[in-house]
Amino acid sequence: MPTQFITKMNKTEAGFHLLMILSLADGNIQAAESSVILEFLEENFHEPIEIIKEQAFLRALPEEERLNHLTETAHQLYKITNQEERHNLIEFAMKVVMADKKMELEENSFINALFDAWDLE
After folding, report:
1. Alpha-carbon distance 61 to 119, whole Å?
2. Is pLDDT above 90 for 11?
3. pTM
4. Which end of the chain offers a freer environment for a tag, N or C, measured as fewer CB atoms within 10 Å?
């Protein structure tokens, strides 16, 4: 069950959390990845984000809680987006995961959790 924090997230914040967790799944994240993610979110959702606050939250999130947070956030994002927005996000998420031309085991489990949360095949 999502926490009150998650249910108050807007599309940009929730998208940022999902995409950053997917980026972190392979163990590292480049500054360029973060910039590309923010660019995508600004173009698609147009809602405000306090980037420093969101980055601090994700840095403080224990690694063992990432999958749970991704799932809760995915459920929240599903509620506040339409099908086209989710399609664009999942397409971009796959590009983020496959940026290095391979999918690590943890990346696969995270992307599968997102597909399951949104009932995609």
Report:
1. 26
2. yes
3. 0.89
4. C
Q: What is the CA radius of gyration of the chain?
A: 13
Neighbouring C-beta atoms of residue 52, cutoff 10 Å: 8
pLDDT higher than 80, residue 27: no
User: What DSSP designation does 81 have?
Assistant: S
Q: Per the structure block, which two tokens stand in for 3? A: 């926490």
44-89 pLDDT, tens digit per residue, is 998 999 989 998 899 899 989 999 999 999 999 999 999 999 999 9
Q: Which residues contact 108 (CB under 8 A, 6 or more apart)?
A: none
DSSP 8-class letter at 99: T
Q: How far is CA 111 from CA 26, 87, 92, in A?
A: 12, 14, 12
- How far is C-alpha 119 from the chain's CA centre? 16
- Closest by CA position to 44, among listed 81, 95, 99: 81
The domain ranges of the chain are: 4-117
64/37 Cα distance (integer angstroms): 23
Q: Which of 67, 69, 72, 53 is nearest to 1 (CA)?
A: 72
